[in-house]
Description:
The chain is an alpha+beta fold. It has helices at residues 28-36, 38-46, 131-145, 180-183, 185-199, 203-214, 220-236, 241-263, 267-273, 286-289, and strands at residues 51-55, 60-65, 71-75, 93-97, 105-110. Strand 2 and strand 3 form a beta hairpin.
Amino acid sequence: MAADETNTSDAHAVPLAPLPDHRNVNTPWWQELWRRHAHITTPLRARGLPCDVEFGLSTYIVRVSLPDDSYLIIGPPQESSSEHPVGDPEGWIASREHPDDQTLFEVLYDSAPSDDPGAPRRPEARHGGSAQPLIEAIDHRLAQLGLLPHPVLPNASPHVQPVQTTPPPQAQDAPRPPDRAAVYVYGDALRALTDRLNATETHADAAALLHQVLDPVNGLLTQLAEFFEAAGEKAKEAEEEDGFDLSYDLADAAAEIRNLGEVLHVAEDRMRALTPLVPAPRLPSTSATLPPAPPKTAPTTSRTR
């Protein structure tokens, strides 16, 4: 099992909640399920909430233990089948229940598409299978209930500075050329990451930079997929045929990016496990290999009497 339990993003981060304690934890099939739900379990474990993945009524769900002995059930609609892959449904439903209090049942979040065309559209339905709005809704409700052990503040990347769209007061009326650093701030940040990768001297350092891209929660690929999904929702707001067509293309792009993340999910570990190149031994110089020259003898001279 990957040793992500003690990883922290910085010196001020809290350790992740421990892994479940059952025999399935060491089985390949359960580890694959855990990997497919890491974008849900990891942020919740960072908040001190133990998680597990198990089979519900008809599909797999995430069960989250809460401090008051109640629990959350997070998953796709249980009564309907879906062709979406496990861990990436067309919508999430999060509910809170209690094993000893059957009257306690609360839906915290529901972005699953409705089967009833006449039902009012829920605000969160526009998020579909995106994980970030789900986590934010859980954060908000558990904070209200006092059941959030470790609230987590959003992490701002130190390499990406906010774009300043309003010029300083003294320069507002003066025309000026566009600031390239502001226009391409995100591309430049990725270019800087590539430069750092090219400059690494060890495979461990290269693996750490891969983590910035491939992390299933805060990595670049995940955030890029979220970006395309948000762009697709924005295109739908036009309520035009081309807007819907564009939203489908953007959703397909987001799905391909997520699939790329799944394909490369072990690339970081593989990079870290590579054996560093050992420089070839330096051959001694030719002069050092030659036998020493014989000592010079003084020439003999014949003396005649």
